[in-house]
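Example 193, ligand heme C.
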Amino acid sequence: MLAWALLVRYHMARRSGYESRQWHSSRDRNRNRADCGGRRILFAQRVELQNPVTDTPGNLRDARLHFADHCAICHANDGSCDTPFGRNLYPKPPDLRRQQTQKLTDGEIFWIIENGVRFTGMPAFGGAHGSEEDSWKLVRFIRHLPQLTAEERMEMEQNNPKSPGDREEEQEENEFLGGNPMQQKPEGEHHHH
Ligand code: HEC
């Protein structure tokens, strides 16, 4: 398994000279704020790899929740890039549902997730234990994005990381419900004589 992974890595590193090229004109900068980026990653050669992860409901669900947790902050749960973070990145993330992404091979999408895109906000997610399996699952999810259902999206919303504001609110609620020890007066003080 390790040998296989190393082989694939070596293979890809050699074959996939890539660059991220801007192909929108300066006029496009004034487009509607919710528009996604118009950049495209160009691979010197097609990266042809077969996805070793199957398209089961369980794998798709893992990928959905993983995406909600790690990717949606920039890409949005539905891949539209319409998040405060995504909109303010430059270059912006592309709409993952559109042809530009869907036309990439599975191997290319996998490669991008593992290695990131240099000089952009797209981080590399490879290297961690188990990351390759996770990345292959995410490839399945990206293929599924154009058919994402409202139900799936709602489930994802529950798994989005919370903003600091939400966290504070939650903490206040917990303190209220659980009783904040700082506000509890010591027993003795209450006694009336
Ligand atoms: C911090 C913001 C950020 C996060 C988090 C992020 N991305 Fe990206 N992603 C980007 C940006 C920006 C680009 C566009 C890069 C470029 O200009 O070529 C991008 C590009 C991509 C592309 C290439 C699409 C194409 O058509 O070229 C894929 C696939 C992708 N991201 C998947 C993911 C996945 C899966 C995750 C989570 C594991 C993730 N991204 C997390 C910002 C992010």
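Summary: Confidence is low (pLDDT under 50) at residues 6-17, 21-33.
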